[in-house]
Amino acid sequence: MDLLHAVLVDPFVQMASLPDFFVQVLWEGLVSGILYALIALGFVLIFKASGVFNFAQGIMVVFAALSLVGLHAIGVPAYLALALCILVMLALAVAVERLVLRPLVNQPDIILFMATIGLTYFLIGLGELIFGGEPKVMITEELGLPTGSFEWETLGGRVIFQAIDIAAAVIAAAMVAGLALFFQKTRIGRALRAVADDHQAALSVGISLQQIWAIVWFAAGIVALATGIMWGARSDVSFALQIIALKALPVLVLGGLTSVPGAIVGGLIIGIGEKLGEIYWGPLLGGGIESWLAYVIALGFLLFRPQGLFGERIIERV
Hints:
Layout: H1 2-8, H2 10-17, H3 19-50, H4 57-73, H5 78-101, H6 109-131, E1 149-154, E2 157-162, H7 163-185, H8 187-197, H9 199-204, H10 209-234, H11 241-245, H12 248-255, H13 260-281, H14 293-304
Antiparallel strand pairs: 1-2
Helix pairs in contact: 3-7, 3-8, 3-10, 3-12, 3-13, 4-5, 4-6, 4-10, 5-10, 7-8, 7-10, 12-13, 12-14, 13-14
Protein name: Branched-chain amino acid ABC transporter permease
InterPro entries: ABC_transp_permease, BCAA_transport_permease
Pfam family, one: BPD_transp_2
């Protein structure tokens, strides 16, 4: 009975007794969730267009952020370094299409997946060779991103907002909205959706798979760059960021591999859920549950809805 009370009653009593702290936890979970959604979008973009689960998306986040910091470290002005990083992600997209995807057209999905694992370790080695393995400090102020914090008095207490968290939430939300509009309203976006629906049908109406794949990997690279800047501003830029990027996996399980809205909703569920779990239920398990709770939430969804909240149910008749 005591255990049931500790699990089912005490956490909610704590939420009600300290509502300002509860709002603080919700805010931090919301920011994390939006950034998880941004990472997941990179996976969704590539999977929708090519059917490839891009295991390298996490290291692309790290490589983009390291490139930005590294260019600035050798004297390149911040905004010029940002522009050069965009060109780096374009070059990476073209190289992946030419050297990885094009030779493996019509190969089984597992072959393409293994190719992205190989790409992951190639970028890890290249990044360590060029930038070294020690953590770097993101050029937050040089990019014009806000720093500091402010307090909001509410519910009998104070909620602290970090300026960089607000900027991250706004930028991430703007990118998510922009990508959604891009998919729905532009000619290239419609071509991407056509390729996602049926490669052969898209080819028959003159859509170039190679061009679409290069575009979508470039878009995923831009998402990776934005994600690397935001996560790097909140912590350090290091290869540990790719572990954070793997939080996109439970987000994808919740939202569905092909759904942009699913990535958003899944990211918010995971971000808020793991923060609430860590603060209010974590002490019952000794703390540290934030590292694995997201995967448990995803497992629960898999048991009841394997295709995710917004994924398509596939029915095969035999």
